[in-house]
Amino acid sequence: QQRALVIGAGIAGLATALRLRHKDYEVEVFEASPHTGGKLHAIQQDGYRFDLGPSLFTMPHFIDELFELYGANAKDYFNYKKKKRVCNYFWEDGTQFQADASVEDFINKAAKKFGEPEATIQQYLKRNREKYDLTANLFLEKSLHQAKTYFSVETLKAISQLYKLNLSESLNSVNKTYFKNPKLIQLFNRFATYNGSSPYKTPGIMSMIPHLEMHYGTFYPKGGMHEISQSLTRFAKEKGIKFHLNTKVHKILSQASKVTGIETEKGKVEADLVISNMDVFNSYQNLLKEAKKPQKTLQQERSSSALIFYWGIKKEFSELDLHNILFSEDYQTEFDYLFNKKEMYKDPTVYINITSKETPSDAPKGAENWFVMVNAPANYNQDWEQIKQDAKMAILQKIQLCLGVDISSYIETEYCWTPVDIEKETSSHRGSLYGASSNSKWAAFLRHPNFSSQFKNLYFCGGSVHPGGGIPLCLLSAKIVADLIPEI
Ligand code: FAD
């Protein structure tokens, strides 16, 4: 039997391990921290449960696939439900909009609320779908770095219809060609943040993101987001995958053009294949010090990071749901601060996620567990202690202005993650949430491939490599890696 070693037990590391075990490899996972899941982790504090990282769950069938690969019934291991209400939006002037999962209801309500013709919204969503259908198979489901990807009917079709993809315009300018109401433009601009980019820079092709959310829906896992990584970990153990927690990998060992194993603080381990789920920047920086570095790829601008307050709130808010957005009054300036000035803007867009709306036991009776996140620049050694204090004041003010309530006296417990914490806890270069940003039309082609061109048995998966960050794309990276590796 051949042995595959996976460095990192993030969502992509777990998925790759399962896919390779299914190909009959002996698989061992080495994880620096005491737990699996990477960014998909959770804490308990003073009677509250908080998911630390991702809060929005889309495309759950990519998780189901991992159980089904082995002929198992996914529902026996992992359960989730579709959300009827996708998100509640709030503005300072008192405008509120409840986005429903039913596309028909969304169009109907949005047309009324924002004074746009239903047909225009319909046309916009149709075009978003076309973008996804044209490119998903090519850009997201295959290695972009292999010649055979380019010699297919799908590729020729996508190339012949490149004009439909709006690659040369920003997402914001595409949205402005459809809509007049600045609030609806802002609502659709927000989807740029799903891959940590700016709507004023990321290309118009990104309007396929709302298609994904609106067409496939949003979901909530039973037991919270953490259950995604934990159910996969349990299943992986059941399938004979071995986990080494608290075991930081220091070096990927190589001889000529092949990797031969890894070195951890506990010793050397030989392998036939090595797959790094660690941020690709740090994989080269720390584990492959002597290898040639793909400079252009590694120097790409990082995606945004986040500053998150996890607050135990001793009050219930009926106007809030699982996902809530309180918009900045000046979105463009907010993104100028994040990506150009590398600072937080004084009027940030505030995202509030409350899982106790779905699982009441996540908070004490009569209370709610608030995950309050603002976009933050990647870590360039800013003074995060000061920024944290300023951001807390700005968030409290935003909540006061949008919801009409001063919540400071209701906060009974607090935990916080800054970009530095995200960097420290998950080895994400500069604390970015999604690897490189997608702030240029070439970003998709500049992401690191899922394989090494120097070492023929070294592979990469996770949010910092192709096809990108976020749970669904990380899971696709695992699928691409497994497709590149032959059955034994
Ligand atoms: P990571 O989760 O980055 O894990 C990498 C693992 O490698 C870590 O466990 C780390 O300890 C380990 N490691 C690193 N170095 C070593 C070493 N030398 N030796 C051994 N182990 C090592 N995505 C969504 O889909 N929806 C969301 O709503 C969403 N919101 C987010 C909010 C926040 C606050 C954050 C931080 C991220 C969010 N994301 C979201 C992005 C998503 O979390 C990531 O894209 C995804 O989880 C990354 O998974 P990964 O497989 O790349 O590994």
TrEMBL record:
SUPFAM superfamilies in the record: FAD/NAD(P)-binding domain
One Pfam short name: Amino_oxidase
Gene3D superfamilies for this protein: FAD/NAD(P)-binding domain
Record bears the keyword Oxidoreductase: yes
Pathway linked to the protein: Carotenoid biosynthesis
Claim: Flavoprotein is one of the keywords in the record: no
GO MF annotations, alphabetized: oxidoreductase activity
Record-level GO BP terms: carotenoid biosynthetic process
Domain Amine oxidase: 11-485
Entry keywords, A to Z: Carotenoid biosynthesis, Oxidoreductase
Highest taxon in the source lineage: Bacteria
Family (UniProt): Belongs to the carotenoid/retinoid oxidoreductase family.
This protein's name: Diapolycopene oxygenase
Species assigned in the record: Psychroflexus salis
